[in-house]
Design a protein that fits this description.
mainly beta; three-stranded antiparallel beta sheet; two-stranded antiparallel ribbon; about 30% strand
Length: about 130
């Protein structure tokens, strides 16, 4: 009832804070991961959990990587669904989760000044 829980363990990241977002397409072609598309945003809101005109459905809290480059993702979001309803994570072209090079200010459109895409994964049912 609280939403969709997304969990995972990340390794190999630069130490520090990183923006994390759900993106429109479940495809992660390196090196820039542009195949993931834009942030999941079917309601055409502005970016950021702190933006009064937002957030995107795909906006998530930033994560912190430790000195060894490890970070945990454990977030529940009420802005997406597991069904075909919009915004569903398992629609025809899937959904990806993207890690950005810098922290997300949670208010600047379109991506919180979080920098380039440095990691990407396709979301699958567990």
């Amino acid at each position: 009832p609280a939403g969709v829980r997304i969990t995972g363990q990340l390794t190999g990241l630069p130490a520090g804070a990183h923006g994390v977002h759900l993106h429109q397409v479940g495809r992660c072609d390196a090196p820039e991961f542009t195949t993931a598309g834009a942030h999941l945003n079917p309601a055409m809101m502005k970016h950021g959990l702190l933006n009064p005109e937002g957030p995107h459905a795909g906006d998530l809290p930033a994560i912190g990587a430790d000195a060894a480059g490890r970070a945990a993702v454990d977030v529940t979001t009420p802005r997406v669904t597991l069904t075909g309803d919009v915004p569903g994570l398992f629609d025809a072209d899937g959904t990806s989760i993207v890690v950005h090079s810098g922290n997300d200010d949670q208010k600047t459109d379109p991506s919180g000044n979080s920098g380039g895409r440095i990691a990407c994964g396709v979301i699958v049912r567990n």
